[in-house]
# Entry
Amino acid sequence: MIREVSSINNKAEFVFDFAVIGGGPAGMAAAVRASENGVGVVLIDERDSLGGQIFKQLGPGFKVTNPNELQVPPHIGQALISKTEQSKITFFLKTTVLSIEDNDLMVASDSDHVSRITFRKLLIATGAYDRPVAFPGWTLPGVITAGSAQTLVKTQRVLPGSKIIFAGSGPVALAFPAQLAKLGANIVSVLEAGPAPTPINVVKLLSASLGNWDLIVDAMKYRSMLVRKRIPVRYRSIIVEAHGTSRVEAVTIAKVDRNWRIKQGTQQRIEVDTLCLGYGFLPSSELLRLVGCEFEYEESKGGQVIKSDQWGHTTVPNVYAVGDGSGVEGSYIAISRGNLVGISVSKELSHIGMDQANIQAKKFHSETRRRRAFQRALRSMFDVKVGIFELADDQTIICRCEIIRKREIDLVISSTSDLSVVKAITRAGMGSCQGRNCQRQISAMVALRHGIDIAKVPQGTPRFPVKPVALGLIADKTVTNQKYFFDAK
# Structure
């Protein structure tokens, strides 16, 4: 059973050996492995249930009658969730981490209570979110990301629309339309910005198939479903504009070149009531930047990705990062890397020795290598190209929170490449999402305007609190006296 901690007596004092931020595949795997080795673990997640986005559980009032309909393969997610729930882990669910100060976490629960949690080792496994793509009409009701649509379908069993077009790239552009179609959704077309697979692509995938046949079989099932449902897949095609007044009524699509730039004269208008977008994901890296971790750039993994070793150590002592929050690689790698973090923490806290750690870690290192080989083969087919950042026109809203349009931002970046200056003058990035939806687009605009690589555009400085919170909570002077510890014994 989950022991959910929403508030603790202010006078209590405990010690947590290992704090895990994130209840998705990576966080659960790390927490369970460390707990099994005798480490005292606390797991913190914003949701009211475990699983993260990929293993999202059904909402209240729904009962699972056929686990095979939940996700592919269902036994992995359900088994990991059950194992986590039955462990000796302490849980802070419906709890948001606002800041990290030395070895303390400042967290806010849904009961309007702010607390501090002390740790010796920390894993930041905050997952990823759908890549925002700005184009005319992207703020209209009826434009929905794959992750949002997945939430509706998985947790509420609600289809997002009655006449749906899917635009995106990569595995999600094949998998999710097929899943929706299987549930009865009317998918009028699938737009894949990348090219159709070539014989060379197929050879590369087959050469990396060892230990990855489950993924190949899944892909074949998804493609077969689209064929059976007679859903056309248009390669080298992209969304250009969404049309409508109070909601989406139609979209304009177009063919693109190898850099995903629109080929003029190929535009086509299609009537739909829903546009679902799946152009990949971006890591939720705010906390990692807040603590000072070093990053490197890899567009196919979400741009700015964390520097870490084979065990998940970051460049900051006692801080680990794995899962899609450190660089988007998928749930299989997240689980393997999460286990490696749990083993490493157990060894460093002297709960197991080096020999035992190496024995436990061997299969997870092997699994990571196999899955990454397959990921590399996929990325050669679906790398995100620069044209995705060039769809917006002057009137397109870039910052949704503050309603800042492209022309307003262009005026500022004409004289600066500093995102902090752009933010201060235009307010772009000051809203509730704190730049999650607009910062990447603005970075691309700066790179294009000043002729520099987007990888070299410095990101905005993260600030406390990293998520919205009532000012009265963090102004409460008693917060500084609240510390929570857990003793594994």
Q: What stands out?
A: Residues 1-14, 480-489 have pLDDT under 50 and may be disordered. The first strand starts at residue 16 and ends at 21. The domain at 387-456 is CATH 1.10.10.1100 (Arc Repressor Mutant, subunit A).
